[in-house]
Specification:
Layout: H1 4-9, H2 13-44, H3 47-58, H4 61-74, H5 77-100, H6 106-130, H7 140-169, H8 171-174, H9 176-191, H10 211-220, H11 222-252, H12 256-280, H13 287-302, H14 311-339, H15 345-357, H16 359-374, H17 376-394, H18 398-401
Length: 413
Amino acid sequence: MAFARYRQIFQSRPFSWFWSGFTFSALGDAMTRVALTWFVWETTHSATALGWLMLCYTGPILVGGFVAGPLLDRFDRRRVMIADSLVRGVAVASVPLLNAAGLLALWHVYLVAAVYGALMMISLAGGPSLIPSIVRREHLATANALETLSFTLAGVVGPVAAGLLIGWIGAPNVVIADALSYFTFAFALVRARPAEETGPTRPAGAPPYGMKDAVRLLLTNPMLFATTFMFMAYNIGGGILSVWLPILSDQTLGGGAELYGGLLGALALGEVSSALLVGGGAFSLGLGLMICVAQTLSGASLVIVLAGRSAAVAAVGLFFFGAFSAPLTIWAQTLRMQVIPADLRGRTFALLRTLMQGGNPIGGALGGLLLPVLGVPAMVLLSALVIGAPGMLGYQVKGLREAGRPVVGEVVH
């Protein structure tokens, strides 16, 4: 009966259009990330070069995020996301075009990754800012699960498809799918007209919200503060993982691009499985407490990767890593939507996700610098510690530990 929520939410045509376009765009992004990562590795065989790619992908988020929030709160959020999709679609399309002309260089790939990073926060903050206007309140948790499911479904199909296609048509040409997905998402957003305005709705004469209001909310709300910095640490560990995983696949396990895509697929398969259960199920424990436990277990799961020098063992560890990781965003986003004012969603989600995504370039840079010195096993353990330890620390924060507790006679959905 719990899965009836999925059927009900897709009765909303705006949400159906949004989710379909968003999912296709996420699929294209997943394929491009694998293709460009492999292009850089195949071209340079340098962990440092991979670290620079991760930095280009995520570093500009720190700047773009502070522009995205005001844009999403000041203008119609759907139209801002349409413009973002068109610009990024053109940028990504330049990779296969330059390759066909014989002009593609490493710096072109870094530039495209930087454009992606600079605009990434528009969709990352735009999604949770737009969703409450196109679904009913009782369906917010399911909508958040489906947003996560978009990324995870793309993670299952995208890396595997990219790994297979790289050997057939070459890494640069795999990016064509991503360009098409951006233009498709722009069309879907045109059709996803919400039932209410997505711009400012404060009473006439009330002072407009500013970024200082988002900062104040972050600093004064224990749940927002704790989850933001817990997830920032998680992303530092994820940035480290993004450097050692292709090297583990190629040099330690000897599997090449196909195994690299397969391991990413195993991780995403774990995410899909748990996202489906979380979005359709009900829980008697508080969401804040479950966030602490799940993040701790996410880090612990990476230790399994070192339990044996085989692709199967690595896949098992990454599957459980994904399974414990996926609910983190779903539960935290549901809690955030309950405390963030509607007119402040763009700025607040942009601020939170900018800070959290800021962990990725830090982790990528650390991975690129430390891996040649410490080796793959030590880097796996480092990423496990950086990801898992904040879950135990978060449990010490009462405002997080008790957040989202069901009242007597109710369950949390």
